[in-house]
Amino acid sequence: MGIWSAPVNYISTRGAAPRLGFEDVLLTGLARDGGLYVPDAWPSLPADAPAALAGLSYADLTARVLEPFAGPTLGPAVLGDLTRKAYAPFHHAAVAPLGQIDRNLWLLELFHGPTLAFKDYALQLLGGLFDHVLAKRGERLTIVGATSGDTGSAAIEAVRGRDNIDIFMLHPHGRVSDVQRRQMTTVDAANVFNIAIDGTFDDCQDIVKALFGDLGFRDRVHLSAVNSINFARIAGQIAYYVAAATALGGGTGRPVTFAVPTGNFGNVFAAHVARAMGLPVGRLIIGSNANDILHRFFKSGAMETRAVVPTLSPSMDIQISSNFERLLFDLLDRDGAALTQVMADFRAAGTFAVSPAQHDRATTLFASHRLDDAGTLAEIARVHGDTGRLIDPHTAVAVAAARALGDPAAGPVVALASAHPAKFPDAVKQATGVHPDLPPWLADLHERPEHATPLPADAGAVRTFILAHAALTRSAA
Ligand SMILES: *Cc1c(COP(=O)(O)O)cnc(C)c1O
Predict the structure, then answer these.
(1) For site-directed labelling of 59, which of 129, 215, 280, 293 has its Cα 20 to 30 A away?
(2) Which candidate, 117, 468, 174, places its Cα nearest to that of 313?
(3) Residues 216-249: tens digit of each pLDDT
(4) 469 CA from centroid of ligand 1 (Å)
(5) Is 299 annotated as catalytic?
């Protein structure tokens, strides 16, 4: 493949944090001014990219795509080594295969990783990147997170058994699905600590926020997060768009339409980046469930929070899409001061609006579709009836959005299958009458012993537990 433009540096969307290279962005996560890091310029795919990438393995393709984001300190050899290690444990030779479900309508299967959801694609890579950079610097990290589902298990799988990372994952006791809880608590590794909080998911999140706000504690344990505001996670999600567009569009330049089931706007933002790099991608379709803050924004130009309602697609049950700030930064012509003002207004009033011109730009780039639970069940049943395939509720939101807004006559339409149906067996059974089986290598999940520590919904109790168990502090405690 031809030569990339120079490696990027990273700037904060709020314009008041230091410019950083990739390794510091990886370890820092959220910028010190409260903003999100973004590349200072989008790299351009070399002109011969479609042909040059077509024959590569998924791991090698990912390494090539990461070069301008991770360089110059992480070169092609290191990236190739890390991506091969990240994707070797995946349970499909193609890693992110395509399957056809209708005329020019495709599923991009992103559930072949260890926890059966797309978050594995970036997090498996992130685990290796953390390990590499920490070893090089002789440093350790303590990761603390709160989860209501997919992120927790994917993060635990990504760092289990690694020498220089401890992970403490909080989940609300009794309020996580059986499969999702067991995917976390059955991991038996000395650096993994599951904490079952006697409270709600919001309590868990408040505790994590309190710990991050305790600067003395934060420095003592080298606290870090792996949520999707880390740009390295976005970078790790670009490759499957490139792989799918390369496979379906080939060198023809025929634009591919992607429909993405969207919560925090991380996954669809990675598609936006791929398009900004020159990948032939048309308007991106956002699939929302009844928590439709993004759908309402693309309709009206106003972002307005509402209470979260539980749905059949819980990984999209969000009030605010944290990664949307990255798109807003571009809509505001990368004016960090203006963005800071908008976010302050949003925090104060629970609402903000963009100008008509900015709204026009947003709707040129993205379209959106909303699907309620009844529609979700109907789409699961339709795909099963048409093809014999079982899809999960998040995937159903994407497929319905693809049917509503994609044009199969104009080019391939690809719906992202973001989770395996066996992760959400109740909804799938309700829609089709068929119970989706776990893959054979996970079939004994319900027999494996669980490891979790119950704690009250109290930040002090969690802090004491972490200090006693994190490798950085436990000998001193
Ligand atoms: C996290 C998740 C989503 C939402 O992705 P975002 O990047 O937050 O928009 C959709 N589907 C599944 C299965 C998920 O785990």
Answers:
(1) 280
(2) 117
(3) 998 899 998 887 789 999 999 999 999 999 999 7
(4) 31
(5) no
